[in-house]
Amino acid sequence: MDKDNLFKSPCQQERKKYKADPSNENRTSLVIPASPFMKKLGYGTGVNVYLMKRSPTGTSNSPWAVKKINTQCNVKQQGIYLKRLQDEAKRLKHLEHPNIVGYRAFTEANDGTPCLAMEYGGEKSLNDLIEERSESGKGPFPASTIFKVALHVAYGLKYLHNEKKLLHGDIKSSNIVIKGNFETIKICDVGVSLDLDENMQVSDPTATYIGTEPWKPREALEESDPITDKSDIFAYGLTVWEMMTLSMPHINFSEDSFSEDSFDEDAYYAALGTRPALNMEELDNSYKEVIELFLVCTNEDPQKRPSAAQIVAELEAIKKE
């Protein structure tokens, strides 16, 4: 079993070029290099992300992150991912916040591949940094670093939920980009976001919460309760947990022992939507606030989780102490 692809949709070796919809309001005329001429930053389900440098001789333009359809996916999948990319462009164009990756353009690359150009939020995701720290044998991130990330992500979620009435729908460490030594912290990937109504519930009853399985809350797994802003909060709590454990939620084996035989599928599915355990021996008293944040955000009852606005208020109060 390939760990990197465990929670991603498989792609088949079948190619087809999709052109960006020329009637799309986000479309613009720009020169985007073909993939081999850009540095690959990462990938997601059905897409790859590249660094596009924009500093010709004599100029100093900030680089962009360019998200492109993975043309190795089959034709049906490419159609799904193209729709998501177009939706993300529409969403992102109307968002402006220091903790949300900014929109730049929606166009085609020289090879004809549809792509979304975004603000370059940093070369590494939080997930990259978690993996690097784990591989180097270091323990949890310092409590102060976790607190900073938690506060800035909460700022972004408060903006999405309260000002834009938007559920992100896929909060996790790989959808948080970091620049430098946590100089900036930004949420990315709003391609599966959903509209919220005045009661903070998803307004379209037919809409599907996509998410990523290990970070999904109970209400999204069982479809027993309405999806609300609190679904993002559960995934946010698990992201705080990731920084304390350097692990993926509910995946209980070490890097060295990863194999199909070591993966307990029944235990994994039984654990989804629940609060994973913490090794308290690794966490001293400096982690008190972030542990409490993790615990309250991962309550299985959505109504007992705090809102993003409440989290911001509480963390800012602690910061001032």
Structure at a glance:
The protein has eight helices and ten strands. It is an alpha+beta fold.
Low-confidence stretches: 1-29
How many strand segments?
Answer: 10
Rg of Cα set: 20 Å
Mean pLDDT: 83
Helix/strand order, N-terminal first: EEEHEEEHHEEEEHHHHH
From the N-terminal CA to the C-terminal CA, the straight-line distance is 48 Å
Main beta sheet: strand number and arrangement?
A: 5 strands, antiparallel
Overall 3D form = globular
Task: Estimate percent helicity.
Answer: 25-40%
Strand content: 15-25%
Counted by DSSP, the helix tally is: 8
Structural class: alpha+beta
The strands making up the biggest β-sheet line up spatially as: 1-2-3-5-4
Please give a structural write-up.
- The protein is of the alpha+beta class.
- It has eight helices and ten strands.
- The chain has a five-stranded antiparallel beta sheet with strand order 1-2-3-5-4, with helices on one face.
- The longest helix has 21 residues, at 143-163.
- The radius of gyration is 20 Å and the shape is globular.
- The N and C termini lie far apart (48 Å).
- Mean pLDDT is 83; it is low at 1-29.
Looking at this protein, list some descriptive labels:
alpha+beta; five-stranded antiparallel β-sheet; three-stranded antiparallel β-sheet; 8 helices; globular
